[in-house]
Amino acid sequence: MIRLIVLKRTRPLKYGRLTTVALALAAGILLYTLILAVIGVNPLLTFSIISASFISSGVVKDFIVLTVLGYALLVAFKGSLWNIGAEGQFYMGAVPVIYLTTIVFFTTGSVSIIQSVLVIAGSIILAILFGGLWGAIAGAIKAYAGVDEVPVTLILNYVAYYLVNILILGPFQGKYVYGYKRTDLIPEAYQLSIRVQLAPTGNPVIDGLLSYVRELIIFGWWVLALAMVVTAVWWFFNKTSLGLKVKVLGSNPDYLVTAGWDVRKVTIATFAISGGIVGLMSALYLLGYLLRLEYPIESQTAGYGYLAILVAWLSLLDIALVPVSAYIISSLTNAGISQSSAPEVKQALAQAGFAGAELSFRWIMIGSILLTYSVLRFLSDYEVRVIRE
Amino acid sequence: MSGLESVLGVVEEIAAAFITFYLVALGHSIFEKAGLLDLAIDGIFFMSTGAAVLGAVVFGTPIAGSLIAALVASLFGLLMAYLLTALPISHGAVGLSLQFLGYGLGIVLGYPVRQQVGALYAFCYSEEALFEMVGLALLLGVLTYYLIEKTKLGAAIRASGENPHAASALGVNVLATRLVAAAIGFAIIGFGASFFPLLWQKYWDLKVYTLGYGWLAFTIALAAGRHPIFLIPMAFLFGGLVEYSVTIQSLLKLPADVAKLIPFIGALGAMLAYSFTRLGRIFASPQSLGKIYYKEEKTL
Amino acid sequence: MGSQQIELILKDVTKTFPGGVVALQDVSMKLGGGEFVALLGENGAGKSTLMKILYGIYTPDKGSIILNDEVLSIRKPSDAIRKGIVMVSQSPQLIDKLTVAENLTLGLENVKPLGGFSTASKMIKEYSLKVGVKIKPEDKVWSLTYTQKQLVEIVRALMLGAKILILDEALTYLPIEERKKFYVFLQEFKRNGGAVVVITHKIPEALEVADRIVVLRRGRVSGELTRDEASLEKVRELMFAEAAKEITYEKLPGSVKGEKPVIKAKDLWVQGDFGVHAVKGVSIEVKEGEVAGIAGVVGNGQRELLEALIGLRRVDKGRITIDGLDVTNKGVGQVRKMGVGFIPDLPLRFGVSQDNNIMENIAVLFHRERFVIDWVEIQELTRDIIKTFKILTPSEFYPVKILSGGNLMKVVVGRELNYSRRALVAYNPTRALDEITAVQVRRIIKAKAKNERIAVLFASEDLDEVYQLSDTIYVMNSGKIHGPFDPETTLKEEIEKLMVM
Q1: Chains that contact B by 3+ CB pairs under 8 Å?
Q2: Which residue from A241, A245, A254 is facing C349, i.e. has the nearest CB?
Q3: Were B91 and a residue from A285, B37, C53, C343 both cysteine, which residue would form a disulfide, CB within 3.0 to 4.6 Å?
Q4: Range from A144-148, A257-261, A282-286 carrying the lowest mean pLDDT
Q5: How many CB atoms lie within 10 A of CB C231?
Q6: What is the mean pLDDT of residues B134-160?
Q7: What does the alpha-carbon distance between residue A249 and residue A261 come to, in Å, rounded to a whole number?
Q8: Exposed/middle/buried for residue A78 (C-beta within 10 Å: 0-12, 13-18, 19+)
């Protein structure tokens, strides 16, 4: 009789965590490729598109967004608080931005620099507050009602979607949109993207590099914010007393209590900070890229809130690894997008009956990466031994 | 007379919504009573709807759809129960992963077929079937109640959920018990979810995965203490909330999407009411729900 | 019943735990049908470990178990149960939310999965009558008293066909009246050929009911006495092995107590984990510069008392004041703010955060005012503590989980000792520490009491330690406190008597 038993390791596996991440990614990509192959897409094509996307400039935008959101979730996850509500916090953060830029201070002409700066700054600050508040609500419910934060944050996502929808069809309805169900475009005066034109040189390598640089410049304000977020998060966890409490909360809440701290207050504060960072990204995203909100919002979402979960998990909650993880995930996501626009793929998908649903395969990829990671993760702290009897 | 008629009328209108929510919450409750946290519910819900559409169209009859959905869901339940009991891994993480997988698989299963046929009417349950199904749902509920409360297996399921270590010391095979609970529970979830496209909406498309009805069922189960009989009024309440929010919205001339908002606000309210009132104590969750089950030495 | 006389032999059983602790060394013991054996010894003597090996919870490094000439291979409890060996411990392993009948049915192999609870119901009614403790099969376990729960456990053992019954402190915490009922019933069990091993620290009772007494001391068999031979004197001698009344540890110089009480508790009633009151009307005062030690066998309420004093456990009745300020039920933060250190029971679970490093573990306790942490200050403090306690660690930046158990303890103790400005509350302050560090810790405690005038209240299962460290000795037994006693004038035997009565 052969038995397999699970035992705790006396010494953690050296590169266990990194191996788990690598295997998880491999599993996700493989499953994704497999399912597409079954539908009729050549796996080699899939692989080449995935590899190509790692160096395509389209990744830059998602990379920045996912890094910032990754840090937002990192803050919560380090406290073992599963903030799955980034989507909701994102759109609640968008509310004051749209309000200030398209309702209160809407303009079709030009405005003074001071007004621009004030409106932009005001939008960003309010976005952080709204996102933080939305997070704090989830934190309070968890802290005082003891309800698991996962269903709470998810339900709050739905509430946020519908609230924002109501606003879009209501007071936020655009006046210059010819009846379409959207808000007005954010006036140029308040937009945060940097225009730049770079002439092509004809050399593909340099051109590739230049398009990268171009993207980075367009989203220059985002890059700046990203740098600030990284610094802030690093400072929070390494220099502040609250940051330390969050770490201890995540490792052993019992000790936090013994040391005389109120776990509930720390929980709410953590969620608030997490939501606040999401709010920040939301403001930047709107002011620098999206420029308006369209109804219904749940179909507009790129699912950043959920992809960020992957980013945070796969970064092993290490501040230095978040950008790496974000880069990988944004490459994979972009692979999915460019895949569905490649003509051979489009044809195969259409033949298999998936015309219109191409983007949905990302759920399978996300799900399988997460599943493999969640399952294999135990191997870094436990080992499996074979016993013969 | 007309009072009774209108009551019956209300019941009839809510019936389809009720069946869906009730059965999904019922199956979910069985699973969780065994101590397994089910954060995959929304994904399993959607996946089952896709499987139901596939089954109904391929075999030409709605009951095939319901059975296929039950089968597919059941397989996922078995997988989850095995992973979470045999290995020391996080219930929440596995649940969330399967939620996402469920979204993807639901699309893969249901989308091509649906695009082919366009309208689902021909493959749906008939009007008469509605009352049969209500009866079936209630019967399943009563049987579940009997199983959980009056049999040794039910006691084993509850024991595994309260304290799997003590249960094991008392002689329960926790793994086997949880596998059974998962198979039955998720089968009922799949079965119930199949009624969404095939009985209630008589429609299905991609967007269904954004509805979040799985989370409503989650809340129903939570607030009603996962009790097969108390789930009935709770599921009825939420079914009514979902069905009538459109009516409320138009009556009160409220903006669009308020209707969609109401059930979720209701869900939050139910959660808070549950936590802050005696309800929480009477309907307490199983003590070991979501706890990683690790013994010093375990056989896989 | 019992056509064949049972004979169980434990031979040369040896067990060492990771970390080098030798729990049992070549222990041999016999048990026959119709016999009632009491297994006695101090805490840590190895009694529980020996029985857990017999029951399959631990595997011995060496030694064998022989039942009626058959060498047994017991790897898990179900193996033991199959051979008729069943253990009942002091904490009932029952499911609270289920009924008695349901709990018991779970173990009945001949009831089918879809079967009901009638078989178990009948059995419970039978035994309930026999023993004289009222239980209804449809009662939910959470509503039962501790006595009733223990009865259910014993019924369960009998239902499983136990021929050899191991009671690991199973009856120790029952009220005396109920205990008597169980003994009567156990006599009948004996007469029917069954064998009983009882682990208890109630020595006088053991003398009354046991046919034979086996005493363990520091992992070895110290001696065996038959019922006729046994007396309280002889047993205590075998247990504590002090022919003379020498004090084995040097007594540390005491200090002059101040007048003001720092820690003051009045008429405290605190609930334990099982819903029964673990602390029953305890009043105690510890003054500035005083080291007060609570002696007692584990499980008599000391832990709950200390947890209540630091604010971790709810006080149902009574008041606690620190330096005159009422802190009853005001939370741990309030007490900590006043400069009270705390060494908890299970320090590795409640006293340290394993994924954080030493500096962080210290900082989260010490750093209470400002928002930004002064790591330079904390690092100095950390280095200080590491040096003083000779904590072996590659650096203060590594997560604490890589440290050995002993070193982890040093982190907790070092941190808490350093933090105590006004008082220190400690449970087993030197458990898991090596002898040298233990003595060092005791010296530091004494010095702080003398020089910094802190008040120290500690509970220890090691009577020698209590004697060495305390200016005042108390004894806790069954939730009540006895004392104060002066270690200079009170004999150890008197304290021991109070501990085991």
Answers
A1: A, C
A2: A254
A3: B37
A4: A144-148
A5: 12
A6: 95
A7: 10
A8: buried
Average pLDDT, chain C: 86
| Residues contacting A220, CB < 8 A, separation 6+ | A194
Strands (E), chain A: 2-8, 382-388
Average pLDDT over residues A61-86: 95
Give the DSSP letter string of A330-383.
HHHHHHHHHHHHSHHHHHHHHHHT-TT-GGGHHHHHHHHHHHHHHHHGGGGTEE
Which of A201, A198, A200 shows the shortest CA–CA distance to A217? Answer: A198
**Are A259 and C364 in contact (CB < 8 Å)?**
yes
pLDDT of res. A324: 92
Lowest-confidence pick of A7-16, B105-114, B246-255, C395-404? A7-16
Average pLDDT over residues B195-203: 92
pLDDT digits (tens, 9 = 90+) for A350-372: 777 777 777 778 888 888 888 99
Domain ranges of chain A: 60-315
C364:A245 CB<8 A: yes
> Looking at this protein, which amino acid is placed at residue C478?
S
CATH number of B2-282: 1.10.3470
Q: What is the pLDDT of residue C49?
A: 87
Per the CB < 8 A criterion, the answer to whether C8 and C66 are in contact is yes
Using alpha carbons, list the distances in angstroms from residue A92 to A105, A182, B269. 19, 16, 20
Angle at B245 between CA A87 and CA B106, to 5 degrees: 50
Map tokens 């008469």 to a residue.
B128
Residue C74 at interface with chain B, using a CB cutoff of 8 Å: no
Token pair in block for residue A253: 């809440």
pLDDT in tens, C103-144: 999 988 888 889 889 988 998 898 888 877 788 999 989 888
Fold classification of C258-332+456-501 (topology level) = Rossmann fold (3.40.50)
- Residue B158 and residue C98: Cβ atoms within 8 Å? yes
Smallest CA–CA distance, residue C367 to chain A, in Å, is: 7
* Interface contacts A/B by beta carbons within 8 Å: 169
**Cα B53 to Cα B49: distance, rounded to the nearest angstrom:** 6
8 A C-beta contact, residue B219 and residue B270? yes
Cα Rg of chain C, angstroms: 25
The residue of chain C nearest to residue B298, with distances taken between CA atoms, is C76
- Domain edges within chain C: 258-332+456-501
Share of chain A above pLDDT 70, in %: 98
Least confident span in A263-267, A314-318, C261-265, C393-397:
C393-397
- The CA distance from B132 to the nearest CA of chain C, in Å, is 27
Contacting partners of chain C (3+ CB pairs under 8 A): A, B
Q: What per-residue string of b and e applies to B90-108 under the rule 16 or more CB within 10 Å gives b? A: bbbbbbbbbbbbbbbbbbb
- Convert the pLDDT of each residue in C409-440 to its tens digit: 889 999 999 999 999 999 988 876 776 777 88
* Binding-site residues on chain A for chain C (CB distance < 8 A): 239-242, 244-245, 247-248, 250-252, 254-262
- What is the 8-class DSSP label of residue C351? S
C370 with C448: CB under 8 angstroms?
no
